[in-house]
Here is the input.
Amino acid sequence: MSTHILFGCPIAVVIWCWVRDALNWRGAPLCFQNLNVSIGPSSNMKSSGFVLIASVCWALWKTRNNWVFNNVLISNLKVVAYQIIGFVQQWMKLQASPEELQADVTMLMEGIRRW
Here is the structure.
């Protein structure tokens, strides 16, 4: 069930494709085991990568719960995209070197503008 919510539902597929395009990943992940294949070996999968992945998953999870438990459906997929950026920016402050994430945030914002 969580694999569907985080990777398989139409909202998740579009969001992962947006992240893929914004950060120049090779592909959109289909499951947790597929993340390294999608991102590619050249990617910096240190704490910045984990914060980004956690932000995407948390935003998708919260969107699903808001729909199921509060009957609130998002009006635009950009709502989820901005949630992801918000989580990354908040959690960036907790990192030892937040500048690693700043480049990802910039690329994600540019991806929203192109979207």
Summary: The chain has a mean pLDDT of 85. The first helix runs from residue 2 to 8. Residues 2-114 form one domain. Residues 6 and 12 are 6 Å apart (CA to CA).
